[in-house]
Amino acid sequence: MVFRKSLLKLAVFALGACVAFSNANAAEGKFESIKSKGQLIVGVKNDVPHYALLDQATGEIKGFEVDVAKLLAKSILGDDKKIKLVAVNAKTRGPLLDNGSVDAVIATFTITPERKRIYNFSEPYYQDAIGLLVLKEKNYKSLADMKGANIGVAQAATTKKAIGEAAKKIGIDVKFSEFPDYPSIKAALDAKRVDAFSVDKSILLGYVDDKSEILPDSFEPQSYGIVTKKDDPAFAKYVDDFVKEHKNEIDALAKKWGL
Length: 259
Known about the structure:
CATH architecture of the largest domain: 3-Layer(aba) Sandwich
Pfam family, one: SBP_bac_3
InterPro entries: Bact_solute-bind_prot3, SBP_3_CS, Solute-binding_3/MltF_N
Family: Belongs to the bacterial solute-binding protein 3 family.
Keywords: Signal, Transport
Structural class: alpha/beta
GO biological process, one term: amino acid transport
């Protein structure tokens, strides 16, 4: 009986040790994995001027968030070239992080309480506000003029909720059409299939042309964070510290790209 009790205690101790070891590995796994493979894989947009836009001539994605990703790679691996960029959009960036296709996401990912329950977000590396891009010929001056308007927004973005709430507050109804990417919304605006293109103002700046303008209205300030998996606290802390410690460099990169 004593022997059996000793074996049981030993088994319980071993199980506890395994769980602790497993938890420690889970906490440190991503950082060590990146170091081991010698490459950081980051999800970025490829259709957002200034932030991350595909250069058709070179096939490279270039922009502010790409440079932030390279800075993170340099911090972890000592070389900003040890990076792989994976194109994502508002609908795919979460699933690609969930299934391990990317190590982190730097893709105009707005920090919200709901999203923080699912993912780890760093301190904000950039802040903006939602705006409206419209055709000049419509003569809209503000959202108040847009009763019954059809507003184009990106799938899975925070924009629809923000504009919907703003419209309700001023007593008007608006409609929404959702699109997979920003170029599709701009094309719909140009074709007059939507009355406005709504997303963060600094993103809209990349889509303004002679026939369109950004209205002065600003809605719901947006803070962007670097996103990592919820079950990886050690890597999340490293990324958060990185943003804090490199604030001046990140701010300089934003200015470099006209943000």
